[in-house]
From TrEMBL, chain A:
The keyword Methyltransferase does not apply. The keyword Transcription regulation does not apply. The lineage of its organism: Eukaryota, Fungi, Dikarya, Ascomycota, Saccharomycotina. It comes from Hanseniaspora opuntiae. Keywords: Membrane, Transmembrane, Transmembrane helix. This is GPI transamidase component GAA1. GO terms for cellular component: GPI-anchor transamidase complex. The chain crosses the membrane at residues 20-43, 364-387, 407-427, 439-456, 476-502, 514-531, 551-572. It holds the Pfam family Gaa1. GO terms for biological process: attachment of GPI anchor to protein.
From TrEMBL, chain B:
This is GPI transamidase component GPI16. InterPro entries: PIG-T. One of its GO terms (cellular component) is GPI-anchor transamidase complex. One of its GO terms (biological process) is attachment of GPI anchor to protein. Residues 1-23 form the signal peptide. The chain crosses the membrane at residues 579-601. Keywords: Membrane, Signal, Transmembrane, Transmembrane helix. It comes from the Eukaryota.
């Protein structure tokens, strides 16, 4: 104790705290650098990741011989011929024909009509075919789901996927082992209509089969007998990931079948995991997918986020490779049989992880510090701004006209940001094309940055208070988000950082405006998104709002209630008068 | 030595008494029959029915076996009843999902099956409720011993006293039940256990109760492998005490064993125990679709096949019931038409074991598809069923269930949930009245006041829609609130379901946190919630029954069914957590203790004083002294 006391005494004596407080902006920058280095430097480094393993003993993937082979091949082809010729028909005709088959297999089937009515998806009507196969050893409390959309995320006719799903269901009817019901779902697309079906399943769907434990979306959008490799997509909405055991089981099974496996569409099989670069690439893409989940074309598994359903998409890529279509079917077969073994729900393995290759992972404890450091970086900026007000050190009254002004601005900004959605909807109602709308919103941001000082210039104390509130708001928002959606939190934290650079002392006006521009949520997200998609995506903002309306993807509300608020506040504060230069110094002398 | 002597004495006494006993004409009887019902989509329901009647008990007080030789009635039943004041006892083991959309009504109007798991009803005589519960607990431990099940878990947390007995029991038969003590009352109780894994060890006791012991007669067909490899199976035993007058009472026992198999699958299972893909030459392809050596669109719908009962059960019927001279064992096949279906019986004389020889034996058919096993010498029997078009099976109008019920839990949060029950009346002609009998465990804290009703049309037909006030549909409600950790919530709603409509009831409930030791071993599985009972009541009949105008016809008028069980997920702790919690709490406590202790014992001085004080310390002075000396 004495040692600690001595230490504290020394610290007090030397005035270290004041020194630290003075260099807060530098510390903040340092934290950012450490945070980024942690994710892109330390985490992919040898020693911080582990090999994946099956944690739940009951799963036992591949312990039994998969039977979806031999004559089942003929049957898959038989169905494929029929399904292939159904392409010319409308959805309802296709659904009715397939429904007849499913009825004949003994499934309990129904058609679910989806009907959206939101300003961003008017009159989107669709029909989802689904059927429940009552497991012979099941009392109807649990279910496993297999879905095959008619058209996949790239809008190509999913002939192989639907054929395998139908043939597999028929094959499953001969098995006496099912201790969970099996649900087959055939939506038109893997997007909103599947999501609407899942929502209805948990509300008022006519036929239900118990709580869904796992879901697999089959995507084999080609006519060919063989495919090159399997792509496993697993990143769900709002940072939701399936239990690592589920992903592992699928990858394990596929590799056992001799299929080349890739995750997140990265051709992982051609990128040896012992190379640092490849692991880094996997992390970067994983984070990007996590941040943009719900904005990129929906693969299907996203529809199940939020209901404790472990969902993955299995996508066959490439014509005429080494694996054939029944091999593709054996993967869901083996996974279904593994999940069927479970007595308890998936709970053994990790729910928060990053994959560095199909068989390497880091758990949350290794990467979450990066997000914590980021939010501390913003908190440091906020403390720095508070010090600038001099409220802590001088005996001035805290509540005066300037601080009230700051609070009013904060509240107004918050309201404006949250109502931004209405604003976007208003633009949309004015018959602008989505491209024009996107451009209009971006121009508006630039306009705001360069003209807002003409409207309102805050006094120095107000300015500092606004700044403090802006950074604290953002820091708290990041802290709330960091465990829930690490990708979005990390992405926002890094992209918004120029905001902190813009408030520095003695910065040129032009540089400041430039920093403000690139840290604008709309501009930053737009450029980042366009960069990852490799095309200008002007419809991004409509997409963000419609995905919040239709599939419950948080990105819009999160961005508009945290980043946008802070950004507007920072812009206003940057318009402010310069403070009396050395107020903190004076305070110290006091 | 003493024991041996007693044993010899007993034997001598027994031999001496034997002639007298057998002079007493036994009034006991044993009847058996098997009903095979072909259901749509190639399913077959096998219903075994065994009726056992005991000899007369001279007075209800005396035990049945005091003076008579074994007459075929199982000895284990009678002490079970008399010791605990049980008059009637119904035990039902059920597993699986009865697909009423496809298969229609439950066998025997639903009276011979229970909810998934095990369900027990008992009519008990006792002075008060406490006594009943005490007796019930003893009864349950005995039943769990006899039937090798965990029914002893059905304790006061799970049992319900039944109010509207007339819907569940023939009230006009009440006067047949002997009351031992005039001050006592009769109580009707029900309890169930959803997570009971019904298996072979539950079946064996059933077969033991039969005088044929599962070795001869129809019961020789029943084996655990087949019975539990089915889509739905149920075993039930109903024991009733019946007194025709004051002096003669007997125990009437009925055992029903029902199960549903899929015929082609069951046959295929014999050929290929693991469901491997069929060999290429056995593929049934649709000739109208593209058909090549590597493409095959499976033949849907119409198929022809034939099978022997031995293909499905794996054994022949071994001999017939010789226990009851007046009665023969019968097998009837129902649900089929004569045009597309044919049946027959094969009588396999004793000594014929060769497979080819058996195959060469002829078949005997009857026009009504009813077969009696009545050969005089010991013989094996087998039943043939064949069809030319398997789609020609349909349910009669009367075989469709009067109601479909789905019950489910919705809502995903860890602290709240919604229970939803939908009753569908598919009939286009008439409204029905039902009793919805729900017993929920105490850890579903249901808000009865949150009940919401709504009515939707079942099918879009010309039938006029229901227009009245939804709340008028509830005719009567009985609620007994739950008591935490000791009694379940019991509610019974009497509802009217308008024709062609779906009445949906929703309740909100709260999920509490349980105590550490209240979680079951597989806590992440979730908690199984027992099935609810729904009775479609025939109101006219019930009125007449109260007036005593009918005799024991309740089961043909009221249709009883169970909903599926539910799986409730409660917030489940990580069970390694207590260790972490203990460490963190201990650390915090040590920390705060240290802080307070410091505050209480230490002096607060200024920074400068503290420096001076530090230099005055004995140890520092000593060190200084040492330094100076050097």
């Amino acid at each position: 104790m004495s040692l600690l006391l001595t230490l504290i005494n020394r610290v007090v004596e030397s005035g270290l705290i004041w020194k630290i407080l003075k260099i807060l902006p530098i510390i903040s920058k340092l934290l950012l650098v450490i945070s980024v280095a942690l994710i892109f430097g330390i985490v992919p480094m040898d020693g911080s990741f582990r090999n994946t393993y099956i944690s739940e003993n009951a799963l036992m993937p591949n312990q039994a011989y998969s039977q979806f082979r031999e004559t089942e091949w003929n049957i898959v082809r038989g169905f494929r011929n029929e399904i292939s010729s159904l392409n010319i028909w409308n959805l309802d005709v296709r659904n009715r024909i397939v429904r007849n088959w499913l009825d004949d297999f003994g499934l309990e089937t129904d058609l679910y009509q989806t009907d959206f009515d939101s300003p961003f998806s008017k009159g989107l009507k669709s029909e989802v075919l689904y059927g429940v196969l009552n497991g012979q050893r099941c009392d109807g409390t649990e279910a496993m789901l297999i879905a095959a959309p008619w058209y996949n995320s790239e809008n190509s006719y999913n002939v192989g996927g639907v054929s395998v799903a139908v043939a597999l269901t028929k094959f499953f009817t001969n098995w006496p082992v099912w201790s969970k019901n099996i649900i087959l779902v055939i939506p038109e697309t893997p997007g909103v209509d599947l999501r609407a079906w899942v929502e209805s399943y948990h509300k008022d769907l006519k036929i239900t089969g118990g709580s869904i434990e796992s879901a697999m979306i089959l995507d084999y959008a080609m006519d060919s007998d063989s495919f090159d490799h399997l792509d496993v997509e697993y990143i769900g909405l709002n940072g939701g990931l399936p239990n690592l055991d589920m992903v592992n089981t699928a990858i394990h099974v596929a590799e056992h079948e001799g299929v080349k496996v890739s995750i997140n569409g990265m051709h992982s099989f051609s990128k040896p995991s012992h190379e640092f670069k490849n692991r880094l690439e996997h992390i970067a893409v994983g984070l990007q997918k996590m941040a943009f989940a719900g904005l990129e074309p929906l693969k299907g598994h996203e529809a199940f986020s939020g209901w404790r359903i472990q969902a993955i998409t299995l996508k066959a890529v490439g014509h005429g490779g080494g694996s054939d279509i029944t091999t593709f079917g054996r993967i869901p077969e083996a996974v279904t049989r593994s999940v069927n073994n479970l007595l308890e729900k998936f709970h053994q393995s990790f729910f928060f992880y990053l994959l560095l290759s199909p068989k390497l992972f880091v758990s949350i404890a290794n990467y979450i510090p990066a997000a914590i450091l980021l939010s501390v970086a913003y908190a440091a900026m906020s403390i720095h701004a508070i010090l600038k007000t001099g409220l802590l050190t001088s005996n001035d009254k805290f509540i005066d006209i300037q601080s009230i002004e700051a609070f009013v601005i904060y509240v107004v900004t918050l309201a404006v940001s949250i109502l931004y959605r209405q604003f976007v909807a208003f633009i949309q109602n004015n018959h602008l094309s989505t491209q024009q709308q996107g451009k209009f919103i971006l121009i508006l941001q630039i306009f705001f940055v360069f003209t807002s000082y003409r409207v309102y210039v805050p006094k120095s104390k107000t300015k500092s208070l606004i700044q403090a509130m802006a950074f604290m708001h953002f820091s708290l928002a990041l802290t709330l988000l960091l465990a829930l959606n690490f990708g979005l939190c990390f992405g926002m934290g890094v992209l918004a950082y120029p905001m902190a650079l813009a408030v520095e002392k003695n910065i040129s006006k032009l540089k400041q405006r430039l920093f403000l521009l690139i840290s604008n949520p709309f501009i930053a997200i737009f450029f980042m998104y366009s960069f990852t998609q490799d095309k200008w995506s002007w419809n991004l903002f409509n997409l963000m709002i419609s995905s919040w309306d239709n599939i419950g993807c948080w990105t819009w509300p999160v961005v508009s209630s945290s980043w946008l608020v802070s950004w507007i506040l920072v812009v206003i504060s940057c318009n402010g008068e310069d403070e009396a230069a050395d107020e903190p110094k004076k305070a110290k002398q006091d | 030595m003493l024991a041996f002597n007693t044993f010899i004495k007993c034997i001598i006494a027994y031999i001496l008494l034997l002639p007298f006993a057998s002079a007493d004409i036994s009034t006991g009887s044993f009847k058996e029959k098997l009903d095979l019902k072909i259901l749509p989509k190639d399913y077959m329901l096998s219903s075994f029915n065994f009726k056992l009647k005991s000899d007369n008990i001279v007075s209800p007080r005396t035990s049945l076996f005091d003076f008579k030789k074994h007459n075929g009635f199982s000895r284990s039943i009678e002490p079970l009843l008399t010791k605990n004041g049980v008059k009637n006892l119904y035990i039902k083991f059920t597993k699986g999902h009865w697909d009423s959309q496809k298969w229609g009504k439950l066998p025997n109007n639903g009276w011979s099956s229970g909810g998934s798991g095990v369900e027990i009803w008992a009519m008990m005589e006792a002075g008060n409720k406490d006594e009943v519960i005490k007796n019930w607990n003893i009864l349950m431990s005995e039943v769990s011993g006899i039937f090798c099940s965990s029914v002893s878990f059905i304790n006061s947390e799970k049992i319900t006293f039944i109010n509207d007995i007339q819907s569940y029991y023939d009230v006009d038969l009440l006067d047949q039940i002997p009351i031992d003590n005039e001050d006592n009352e009769l109580f009707f109780l029900r309890g169930s256990l959803a997570n009971e894994a019904v298996c072979t060890e539950n079946l064996s006791p059933f077969l033991r109760i039969l005088p044929t012991n599962g070795k001869t007669g129809l019961s020789s067909l029943i084996n655990g492998n087949r019975l539990f490899d089915s889509y739905w199976n149920s075993m039930s035993i109903d024991v009733n005490t019946v007194c025709t007058d004051d002096s003669s009472c007997y125990l009437d026992t009925e055992i029903d064993i029902n199960f549903v198999v899929n015929i082609p699958q069951a046959i295929a299972r014999n050929e290929r125990p693991t469901p491997k893909p069929v060999p290429a030459e056995e593929l049934q392809c649709d000739p109208n679709k593209k058909l090549t050596e590597w493409e095959c669109f499976p033949l849907l719908s119409k198929k022809s096949y034939s099978f022997f009962l031995s293909d499905i059960f794996g054994t022949y019927i071994n001999d017939s019931n010789r226990f009851n001279k007046e009665d023969v064992s019968t097998i009837s096949i129902t649900g089929i038409d004569d045009e597309h279906w044919s049946t027959g019986i094969k009588v396999i004389p004793r000594g014929v074991d060769d497979k080819d020889e058996i195959e060469a034996l002829g078949l005997l058919g009857t026009s009504n598809h009813v077969y009696e096993l009545k050969e005089h010498q010991k013989t094996n029997y087998d039943i043939y069923v064949g069809t030319t078009d398997n789609t020609k099976v349909s349910l009669n109008e009367s075989e469709y269930p009067p109601i479909y019920v789905t019950r489910s839990l919705t809502g995903d949060s860890q602290d709240k949930g919604v229970m939803r029950v939908a009753f569908t009346n598919p009939s286009q002609e008439r409204d029905i009245t039902i009793r919805y009998f729900e017993t929920l465990p105490w850890f579903i804290r249901l808000y009865v006041s949150s009940l919401k009703n709504n009515v939707k049309p079942h099918k879009n037909l010309d039938v006029p829609k229901f227009t009245g006030d939804v709340n008028d549909l509830i005719i009567k409600t009985d609620i007994k609130p739950s008591i935490i950790r000791s009694a379940p919530l019991h509610m019974q709603h009497t509802l009217r379901i308008p024709k062609n409509s779906v009445v949906m009831m929703t309740f909100d409930f709260e999920k509490p946190l349980l105590n550490y030791e209240e979680y079951p071993p597989d806590s992440n599985h979730g908690f199984e919630v027992e099935a609810a009972v729904v009775v479609v009541i025939d109101e006219d009949f019930e009125e007449n029954a109260m007036n005593g105008e009918t005799r024991g016809l309740l089961k043909s008028h009221n249709y009883i069914m169970r909903t599926s069980t539910l799986l409730l997920t409660l917030a489940t702790p990580d069970f390694s957590m207590p260790y972490n919690v203990i460490t963190i709490t201990s650390t915090l406590m040590a920390f705060s203790f240290g802080l307070i202790f410091n505050l209480l014992t230490k002096r607060v001085v200024t920074f400068e004083d503290s420096k001076k004080l530090v230099t005055d310390r004995p140890l520092v002075r000593l060190l200084k002294g040492l330094k100076i000396k050097k």
